[in-house]
Each structure stands twice: as C-alpha cells, then as structure tokens.
Amino acid sequence: MKNLLSAARVLFLVIFLLSDNLFLAVGLGMVLGVTQIAWQYHRKQPIGSLQWLSVVLVLASGTATFLTHDPTFVMLKPSVIYCIVGLVMLKRGWMNRYLPERAAPVADVATAFGFVWAGLMFGSAALNIALALSLDVKSWAAAMSAWGLFSKIGLFLIQYGWMTMIGRRRAAAAGMAPT
Per residue in 131-146, pLDDT tens? Predict the structure, then answer.
C-alpha cells in the first residue's frame, strides 16, 4: 500500500502541476491504482486489505470528482486514509516487529512512539481537512506533499535519536557497552 500511496501522490502532483488539468491528474491516478492491483494479481502477489481499501478510495473519490466537477472529494481522500492508518497504529506494540533485535531493550519506548505515530496520522488528517477546505488545489497538493514527506522524516529522526539516547543510558546504567 505504501508504494501505491506514494506513487499516486507523486503522479497526481506532477501531472497536475505540469498540465494544470485536475481531471487528467485524477484520471491517471485512478488508472495507476487499478494497474497496480492488476499487476499484482497477474503476478499472483498478495494484495493487502489496506491496498484494496486505498484503490477503492481512489476510485470513489475520483469518480465523485468527475461527476460533480468538485476537487474536494479527491482532496479529502487522504484524511480517510490517514485516519484508517492512525487507527491501525493505535494497536499497542505494532512497531516492535519492525525493530532490529538490538533495539529490544527500548521496545517500551518504541511502543510509546507507536502512539505518537498514530497521533501524527490523526493530526495529518485534520491538517488535510483544514487545507482542503481553505486552499486551491495546487496549493493544497504542494502543502500536503511537503507535509507528508517532512513530517514523517522529522518524526523518524526524533524517534531514532530518542531511542538511541534511552538505549545508551540504559546500557550505561546496567554497566554494559552500548550497541
């Protein structure tokens, strides 16, 4: 799903900024979503439930945009996805399975950051709604693309630094060499 969301967001932004044609950008985004599902199906690769949900949202919001000539549907779609991802991230310890073994001593910190990530998703959903209802499409697309990238990089760096610091402190307190 991550690849679909990233590819669709980049494709939409690039096509829209180059062509200044919302309907072309939305239509190509819809085609990309269906093509990615078809490609995975053809290669007999598993298609996750969130990926199915994402393509359904792309198709539904795109269709609504075409039928009403209102870009608000496409602009609000990321908020739905952010909320769904945020809800999934509310599961205690979801992040721990992604940690390397050497991070086991700070798994509790990672668990706490799992909730911080969920908060980022819910905050991003709220920001997206506010911007979608107050900005033109180009400004919204640029702002949310930048926010999507920089908020995640920023939180990742904060989490990495915090977990490293806590890990080193705990190793020092236990008289062990930090890893």
Answer: 999 999 889 988 998 9
